[in-house]
Each structure stands twice: as C-alpha cells, then as structure tokens.
Amino acid sequence: MSGGKMKAAVYYGIEDLRVEEIDVPAIGDEDVLLRVGACAICGTDVKVYNYGYKMLEPPTITGHEISGTIVDMGRNVEGHEIGDRVCVVPIVSCGHCYYCRRGMTHLCIEFSKKTEAFGFYYPGGFAEYMAVPEKAVRGGNLIRVPDGVSDEEASIAEPMACALNGQMIAGVGIGDTVLVIGAGPIGCMHVALSRALGATTVIVSEPREERLEQARQFGADYYVNPGKLDLKTLVMEVTGGIGANVIMIAAGSRAAQESALELSANRAHIDFFGGLPKDDSTVHLDSNMIHYKEVYIHGSSGSTPSQIKMCLDLMSGKRVEGKRFISKVVSLEELPAMVVEAQSWSQLKVVVKP
To answer: Which pairing describes strands 85-88 and 142-144: parallel, antiparallel, or unpaired?
Structure first.
C-alpha cells in the first residue's frame, strides 16, 4: 500500500474540514495499516469542528470511533493477520502508570497529558486508510470484530462501551429501576444496556419530542417529556414512593444533576455521564440528602478495551441491536456537511463509510 493515494477529510481548523487526496500512511515493521470500514461521528468531533481543541494540531485527520480491516502490517507484528476485521480502541495508554496497572487504561496518566488517542494525537478514521503504530498494536488497541457484526455496528462499540462503563460503575442489575435522563445516542444506549443487564423498570426523560420518539424503539417502560409531565411525580408513582435505584444523566445539564437527588432511592447510584461547560461546571447539591439517603454520586466518561469487547459480544449475541442506533450512513464526501447537520441533534449515530 505504501506510496498510494487515498481520500481523507482533513481538519484545518475551526469550521474548516476538507475532503482531499493525500498519501496513504506509511507503516514500519511493528505497525498495522487499516482499510477503514466505518467511522462514527461523535459529539466531540462536532465540538472540535466548531471550537477546535487545544491538544489538536491541524492539519490532521479526526474521527475516533473506528472499525476496519487489516490490509498490511509490518513483518514483526504478531497476533494479527491480514484480513482481520477489527475495532480500534481510541485511547493509546502507556500500560505502566498507576491506573493502567489497575486496568483503568482510559484514565491513563500519560494519555491525559497529551490526549494520545486516534483522531487527536494520531490521525483518525475519517479517511480511507489509517496507520496503527507499534505502541497501539502492542497495547491491544485492535479488537477482533465477531462474525455477524457489521463495520458500522463495530464503529459504535466504543461509545456504547462508555455507556457500559457507567452502567458497571453504577452496578445496574436485576430488580433495578433505572432512570435515564437524556435520549440522545448515549441515553438510548443506556436504555438498551440497562435492559441487557437485567433492570426491571427503565424510565426515559427527554424534553425534545423528536428524540423521545426516537428512543421508543429501545424498549423503556416509560417515556417522559419533563416539560409536559412532572418527572418526580411519575418516578414516585412508578416506584411506590421509593425513587430510582440508578439515575444515568446522559445530558450536559446542571439542572438534571442538581435534581437527581430528589428522584433517587436510598443508596441509589447517580452517574454524571454528561459533562458541563468548563467555564460553567459548578453544581449545588443538598449534602444532607446525600448524607441521610446514603447516595452514591459518581462520574463516568471513557471505557476500557475489555468493555469495548463486551459491547461487540453483546451485539454479536443480539442482546443489543447495534444497527438500531445508526440513523444514517454517509460517504466521506458528505462528512463536512454532515458535521454541520449533526448540530441539530436530529439523528442518533451517523456513520461515515470512507
């Protein structure tokens, strides 16, 4: 493949994304070359397009929710074969820091210093081909995609794994009442995963009717527009006045974070999944409610390779229908316009097939 040409969406800066013909990346004896099968658009990609990112040096190729096929590899690569279909773990962790040694590779200290990830530090998946360097190959960043899982579905395994990470921290299981606040792609993934993990009752709260309607296919028990129906009243009616055992806040909403305590059962888990703006991220919580109700409040944001594999297996086993999360598949040429359209949040996941 060395010396050939490929199409790529090159990010030159804020609101400047151009589809161009560039060289196929060269690889060394320890590296792998992927033919990108699919790369999903993440909310972070939209933020980078609109506002840039301090760790990102244009021109570069963004996109970090990636699946593909190995088409070339260095002579010293072991454990992979040409033709393997793989999902790419975006974070390239150091493997030896405090968190990596404990299996929390997404919290890697070295990663946090320079955002060493595909689509940021390394060129990403909005291109026909992508190089995977030795550090990522040896670090286990390529996960085999099971038969029956399409490239498009494999590309959303990473964001689904981020939702799974939150679910695992919250300990979602049989008998739980789970309240999901926010019915975007991640909120819908929380609904599907709650079902797969055994939750008895799932409630979805979303103020936008279009998103609420999209979420109905994922099998929650109750769908609430909090602008039309009081959410606390419904939660208490459903739970006999107990409250929700788990609350997943899949929206960047201070109001949702602050009101969650009133909706929670004793010893509930409340997960702050959606981040707030950096310059406006302070919330006010009733400390006495946390104290007397013995509530657990925690955050979650990333995922580990093992959680990405779990999501691939959940889709392979049809415990979660991955294709339901994909609203649209577009070409690389359509990506610049699609990033603009994505700001309307009228879609769930949009996947690019280079």
So the answer is: antiparallel
